[in-house]
Amino acid sequence: MKTKAAFLKNPEKIEENPLKIIRLELPELKENEVLIKVNACGVCRTDLHVVEGELGKVNDIVPGHEVVGTIEKTGSEVKNQKIGNKVGVAWLYSSCGSCQYCLSGRENLCQNKQFTGFSKNGGYSEYIIADNRFIFNLPVGLKDEEIAPLLCSGAIGYRSFKLANASPGSNIALFGFGGSAHLTLQLAKRFGHKVIIISRDKNHLKLASELGADFTFSPKNGDVYENLKDKDIEAAIIFAPSAIPIMNALKIIKPGGRVVVAGIHVDGEIKIDYDLQLFHEKTLLSVESYTREDMLEYLRLATNLGIKPVYTDIKLEEINAALTDLKNSEVLGVKVIKF
User: Fold this and answer.
1) Which of 17, 204, 219, 257 pairs with 105 at a CA distance of 20 to 30 A?
2) CA distance 186 to 195
């Protein structure tokens, strides 16, 4: 069986249009796998990192890991799914299930895990094969295009929010305002926090205000530390793929605060002034993927709290242009491939 897919032969800068639309032969299903007809796939910044080789060189791959689709065929050992079920496939394709991390509920740290759209062909395709143990039954009442971004952008924001461990009602700063941050803003507001958004893009700041941000600031308008040092910020989450926001966030959080880096890749060197940025029991930590428990919790919360992405749907053939827009910060909310 063949599928139409956006295929990456070799990593290149996105401006070179490296994703080519081809007909790709699908392998036979293994016993724990399912064949899924893709309905929608979110366009995530991680895909851009994959395409440009920033996560390590990967050849002959179909990116995409925010996948919503319907099951068309099941492997011989799949007993909990049936043809026609709507399911989600996300970044964590599989983990080993037997290491110290998997056995302690930290499968996201497994050293033998595989990733959708990086280790295995992903959702920029009409059909995808997935490991049944790592797919998700999806909430009802949301469009496929609304669910897709929740499967990475939303889930990573949720794990970052949990790790930030901010006190109820406290002030939280989000640096960068793309796909993940605009969902995390909604989550933090639903939990009663005051949220400060830092972004260089005026259109992103306008959207942040429309979604309920309590204060917005652009570094183009002055020094971040001088303008935000008195905002009583307990926690910060970094979505921008740059070292500079990390260093600024460590300056502006109050004693005992946390800075959580949500991105899978960061450009630049992190230089820390111990007295100014790390003393007073401040904490800096990163996020790596999510656990299946995180995802199930988040999907329930997003449904119950009415968290939805701001999105634009595109065709598969527009994927190079969509990733170029993402690189240039020209996407409001997220873009989603609709099949």
Assistant:
1) 257
2) 9
> C-alpha angle 118/162/254, rounded to 5°?
115
Per the CB < 8 A criterion, the answer to whether 8 and 18 are in contact is: yes
82 half-sphere exposure, CB direction, 13 A CA radius = 0
How many Å apart are CA 74 and CA 37, to the nearest integer?
A: 12
Judged against a pLDDT cut of 90, whether residue 139 lies above it is answered with no
Helix (H/G/I), strand (E/B), else coil: 146: helix
Distance CA(229)–CA(232), nearest Å, equals: 7
Count CB neighbours of 58 within 10 A.
17
CATH (domain of 318): 3.90.180.10
**Is residue 293 included in any domain, yes or no?**
no
Whole-structure pTM value: 0.96
pLDDT band for position 140 (50/70/90)? confident
CA-wise closest residue to 8 among 54, 74, 75, 77? 54
Domain that holds residue 262: 154-286
Is 302 domain-assigned?
A: no
Q: Copy the structure tokens of residue 80.
A: 């909990």
CA gyration radius, the chain = 20
Which contiguous run of DSSP H or E holds residue 225?
A: helix 224-228
Interatomic CA distance for residues 65 and 46, integer angstroms: 9
Residues 103 and 208 in one domain: no
